[in-house]
Amino acid sequence: MDEQRGDAEQFEYVGFWARVGASLIDTVLACLVVAPLVSMLTPSDSFLLYGGDWSDIESLSLTHTGGLRSFLLSYVLPAAIVVVFWLTRQATPGKMAIGARVVDAATGAKLSTGQAIGRYLGYFVSTIPFCLGLIWVGFDSRKQGWHDKLAGTVVIRAKKRGVEPVRFDGQQR
């Protein structure tokens, strides 16, 4: 039996506004890291950050060296960083700041690599229809967004008084 399953009563699900705050922290940190890298390493694409000439459509192409480099730095690098944080720390810096962790919904264990990648890709599914999959966290009994449901994850933190405790799917009720 996983150590967290026995301790489930000590945790609560993290709600919508706390997760919004954590996401804002992560977004600011990501911008502080990625924007300077993009502007230093892809000077031909720096117009994307500073409102330059949009008529140079060739530099937006992924086949263009600067476009590919910009794509890797702007999208792939942040995705890799988030997945690595989930796998090693069970949380991004924003979630760590609020004392939250992302865990397997069935066992309370650390995420598998597949779950972490699936959860990240699930963000796209969650945001495409007017961010409904993210807003869903505010209405779901386990505070799961669509990305959490797709990946089989929950976001938890130490329980406060009077809050419904966590229950993992594999736990007997």
UniProtKB/TrEMBL annotation:
<dbReference type="InterPro" id="IPR010432">
    <property type="entry name" value="RDD"/>
</dbReference>
<feature type="transmembrane region" description="Helical">
    <location>
        <begin position="120"/>
        <end position="139"/>
    </location>
</feature>
<dbReference type="Pfam" id="PF06271">
    <property type="entry name" value="RDD"/>
</dbReference>
<feature type="domain" description="RDD">
    <location>
        <begin position="13"/>
        <end position="152"/>
    </location>
</feature>
<protein>
    <submittedName>
        <fullName>RDD family protein</fullName>
    </submittedName>
</protein>
<keyword id="KW-0812">Transmembrane</keyword>
<dbReference type="InterPro" id="IPR051791">
    <property type="entry name" value="Pra-immunoreactive"/>
</dbReference>
<feature type="transmembrane region" description="Helical">
    <location>
        <begin position="20"/>
        <end position="41"/>
    </location>
</feature>
<keyword id="KW-1133">Transmembrane helix</keyword>
<feature type="transmembrane region" description="Helical">
    <location>
        <begin position="68"/>
        <end position="87"/>
    </location>
</feature>
<keyword id="KW-0472">Membrane</keyword>
<keyword id="KW-1003">Cell membrane</keyword>
